[in-house]
Amino acid sequence: MRLLVTGGSGYLGSELVAHAASRGDEVFATHRVTPPDPDLDARWVCADLSDAGVVDRMVAALRPEVVVHTAYRATGPRAHLDTVEAARNVARSTANSGAALVHISSDVVFSGRETEPLAENHPLDPVSGYGRLKAEAERAVLDTHRGSAVVRTSVIYGGPDHRGPQERLVTAALADPSVVSFHTDEVRCPVYVADLARALLAVADTGATGIWHVAGPRAVDRLGLARALARSLGGDPAVLRGGPSPEPPPGGPVRPRHLHLDSSRFVARFGPLLRDPDQALGG
């Protein structure tokens, strides 16, 4: 497969590049802010995806069969450009070229007010700024590339062999437990980064379209995930502090509390590729 991964130097993107290259795919990948890993077997393109002309020329030159769009920016003055406009540009150029598109979205397109598992047809109701951006990006992609796949996922972790933001947070807390309190009332379905990369390639291989929930099979709170990661990192999970998340100040940012993605539709089609933290981390 001739594959283009946007945001290939990011946490998920680099894992996806590594998995695709290891199975013999011809891999192209974009970067802009984060330098690429020179050990990854890909042809790298430095590109501002919010520039429609840049994206058109890149897709025309590389001629990918599939594009997996992982690039985004959660906050800051470029958040709308890099999350919404970039997604729209990639979707339009990909559709015009005839390539397939897998767009990565997030569970934060939901409010987290409800405790039951959320299926793909649940109405979007984001409460955070980032959630609103991801919801707008989803709509842009689905409206622009009618044959695209939108994959919603959750908190991504990797353990000692694939360290990312969650591992860095837990490492800091193990060194000084006073630096962070892991929220016991914020529930997600964390997904192992290698499992997610394999799942995205499965979607790409089959040409699946529409919306898919691809997250871990078990909902856990932030403290539960942190303790599983602490054990995998050789630390004492008992030292980690937990408690309810604080109420935001008036007009302050809101965080969804209970985001339980139902990934049963994905599992029914692609099999049990997704593991919970105890399974993925060995214990």
3D architecture notes:
By secondary structure, the protein is of the alpha/beta class. The chain has 2 domains: 2-155 and 190-213, 3-Layer(aba) Sandwich (Rossmann fold); 163-189 and 220-258 and 277-281. Helices cover 37% and strands 17% of the residues. The protein contains 9 helices and 13 strands. It has helices spanning 11-22, 52-62, 79-97, 129-144, 165-175, 193-206, 222-232, 264-270, 277-281, and strands at residues 2-6, 26-31, 43-46, 66-69, 100-106, 149-153, 156-157, 181-183, 187-188, 191-192, 210-213, 220-221, 241-243. It has a 7-stranded parallel β-sheet, with helices on both faces. Strand 4 (66-69), helix 3 (79-97) and strand 5 form a beta-alpha-beta unit. Helix 1 (11-22) crosses helix 6, helix 2 (52-62) runs parallel beside helix 3 and helix 5 (165-175) crosses helix 7 (222-232). The chain is globular and about 55 Å long. The two termini are 35 Å apart.
